Amino acid sequence: MKFKFFDEINSTNTYLRRQLRIEEFEVIVAKNQTDGKGKRDSTWISSEGAALFSFAIEDRYELDEKITIFTGYIVYKVLKNYIENKDKLTFKWPNDIYYENKKICGILCEKVRDYIIIGIGININNTDFGIFREKAIALVEITGKNHSVQNIIEEIVETFQNELYSLNREWEDILQIINENSYLKDKKIIIQQNGKFSGKEYKFLRVDRRGKISLIAKGDSDEIKFSSLEFKVL
Ligand code: BTN
């Protein structure tokens, strides 16, 4: 596995995106990011002690719809080994890993030319979350001890590499694990449509084969699916 380390960089995703030649699985790691990117142009607060890294893969396995879910599954699988209370670790569609009601990891996959850049941020030994204090948690807070950020990054990239080639074959099993351990299971949510949240309540049903979220509205009999959605958990 090849690594490039930075004490500080704007964003490991942006760094890879700007490379003229992208090398598959070269891992860009930063101690700190000055312009960490989250989904929908949000900012990812980055501080030392977190795992902040990105790598790229060629987009050749019909990956588009699956890659974020697959990456979440890999991170979930690795982090679970560090945690005693495994049931509290869950996958939140489309790109987060939660511990109880707090986020421990966010994933940002971006398509660039013939590649997909996979950016992962995990709170490991960092505990300063600023305004996100109520919504975020770090591995150190769960286990009561510090962990090697480098070891966790290596484990994730290695597991990712090993399982990528069987992704399509194993997809149904991966989905089953994701759905059994979904943060949204049994939760009621409200959704944003045309820029507004309506009062209508929905129940999460599952993540489907194409990586879409499947919901059912209270009182309705038909399920509806979205490939991208803003929602709030009630
Ligand atoms: C999200 O939760 O919205 C996704 C957050 C992804 C953050 C990681 S940190 C490493 C990589 N570089 C970035 O700028 N973003 C991703």
TrEMBL record:
Residues 1-168 form the BPL/LPL catalytic domain. GO terms for cellular component: cytoplasm. Gene3D superfamilies: Bira Bifunctional Protein, Domain 2 (3.30.930.10). InterPro entries: aa-tRNA-synth_II/BPL/LPL (IPR045864), Biotin_CoA_COase_ligase (IPR004408), BPL_LPL_catalytic (IPR004143). The keyword Ligase applies. Pfam families: BPL_LplA_LipB. Keywords: Ligase. GO terms for molecular function: biotin--[biotin carboxyl-carrier protein] ligase activity. PROSITE patterns: BPL_LPL_CATALYTIC (PS51733). This is Biotin--acetyl-CoA-carboxylase ligase.
